[in-house]
From TrEMBL:
It comes from Anisodus tanguticus. This is ER lumen protein retaining receptor. Its main location: endoplasmic reticulum. Belongs to the ERD2 family. The chain crosses the membrane at residues 27-45, 51-71, 107-126, 138-156, 162-183, 195-216, 236-258.
């Protein structure tokens, strides 16, 4: 406890100092932190495929935290059913495409995560329905599904199977925005209980690993990867954009999450 306090005090002072800075300084610090993390990852991880494994593993850990919550606390309060449904959608599509192309470690991770997500959906819709905040989980799913499908129709990888190409792109785009209903619900609630906060933070870590892969890949190829032969002129840039969008929308929550943890608070409080 004493060692934890020794660690927390300077970190609390750091967060207090950051809060007092101008938006320009905060932005500069954020960019510096991200660049530092990217350089660190590049030095530590040499196999690009490991970034995806880490991203999928972080997502699965987040799902396990939710399973623990639902199993022990018997409540799904604070969780977005729509985010879980969108997650099941992109996992199902990606799993189908993966099985059509070539099964690997990603296929196994997607299958396990899909099974876990399906269990969460079942529990939220039937067993724990009374604790589901349906009135606050008010983002319409078609708002993210229809644009993702439309973009996938026009911007997708160039392969011999047009349907698989469109479906794969659709899964990528849906994954990029699947967390939006959860973020909307949390904005409505304002106070996030620990397990839900841990889950969303795990999603943030997952997206950062995935986004880091593409950025480092482009850097290592001096930009030539953006116009990868056979990938479609806009496909790779669109993937990177989708990753950046999801990383960006989760970054704000991750800041408040880390701030709460460093202050020893169990609940994460979002600004009004």
């Amino acid at each position: 406890m004493g060692q934890k306090g020794v660690l927390q005090r300077p970190l609390q002072k750091l967060f207090s100092w950051v809060r007092k800075q101008s938006n320009k300084v905060k932005t500069s610090l954020g960019v510096f932190t991200v660049l530092t993390l990217l350089v660190t990852l590049k030095l530590l991880i040499h196999e690009h495929n490991h970034f995806f494994v880490l991203a999928e593993f972080a997502h699965f850990v987040g799902i396990l935290l939710l399973i623990y919550k639902l199993s022990t606390l018997n409540t799904c309060s604070g969780l977005s059913l729509k985010t879980q449904q969108l997650t099941a959608t992109f996992l199902s599509v990606r799993l189908f495409c993966s099985l059509q192309i070539e099964g690997d470690i990603h296929t196994i991770l997607d299958l396990v995560t899909l099974v876990a997500t399906s269990w969460l959906i079942f529990m939220m819709k039937y067993k724990l329905k009374s604790s589901y905040m349906e009135d606050l989980d008010n983002m319409k799913k078609y708002i993210v599904i229809l644009p993702s499908l439309a973009i996938a129709f026009f911007i997708h990888p160039q392969t011999n199977n047009l349907i698989i190409s469109i479906l794969w792109a659709f899964a990528v785009y849906i994954e990029g925005v699947s967390v939006l209903p959860q973020l909307r619900l949390m904005q409505n609630v304002k106070i996030i209980e620990p397990f839900t906060a841990h889950y969303v933070f795990a999603l943030g870590v997952s997206r950062f690993f995935s986004c880091a892969h593409w950025i480092i890949k482009v850097y290592d190829t001096a930009g030539s990867y953006l116009s990868l032969s056979g990938g479609g002129f806009l496909w790779i840039p669109m993937i990177i954009l989708a990753e950046i969008v999801q990383t960006f929308v989760l970054a704000d929550f991750c800041y408040y999450y880390v701030k709460s943890v460093m202050q020893g608070q169990m609940m994460v409080r979002l600004p009004a």
